[in-house]
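Lay summary. Proteins are chains of building blocks that fold into shapes, and those shapes determine what they do. In this project we predict the shape from the chain. Here is one chain we studied, written as its sequence of building blocks.
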Amino acid sequence: MRISVSSDMDEPVARGLVEELRDRGHEVLLHGALRAGDDDRWAVCSEAAAREVAEGRADQAVVCCWTGTGASIAANKVPGVRAALCTDAYTAGGARRWNDANVLALSLRLTSGPLLREILDAWFAAEASAEADDRQNVAHVGRIGDIGRIGPTGPIGRIGREGAAP
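And here is the predicted shape, written in a compact code that computers can read:
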């Protein structure tokens, strides 16, 4: 799998993440402080990693900053990205399963080496749920950015439970 990785700091957790992903056989695309000469601001490098997912150049991404919050916010601004800030394995597995998350956000401050491996184990072991309710929620999330935008036939209104504008 091709995984885009960004970090705003060259920290042991970020280096360990890259090493762990490569050890698992993934191709890793680097951004931010992990790539010499790259822009290491969390908003910029997280966006770059997320765009690779949205544009199909990467299958998934992992974005990192001190708390993970800014990285997840920046990644989630990219259409088609569902980034989840995960601080434990259960959350990582659930993010993949119920939310079909395609970007994992991590805190450089809170994530230890053993915890990183547990989170990655859960992330890669889980698959997106095929349950109708879960798929409807994921589809709805994908449409949220369209609400209030001017479309070809006028303003796009509130999206109801089944996705139809009222």
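What the prediction tells us: DSSP finds six helices and seven strands in the chain.
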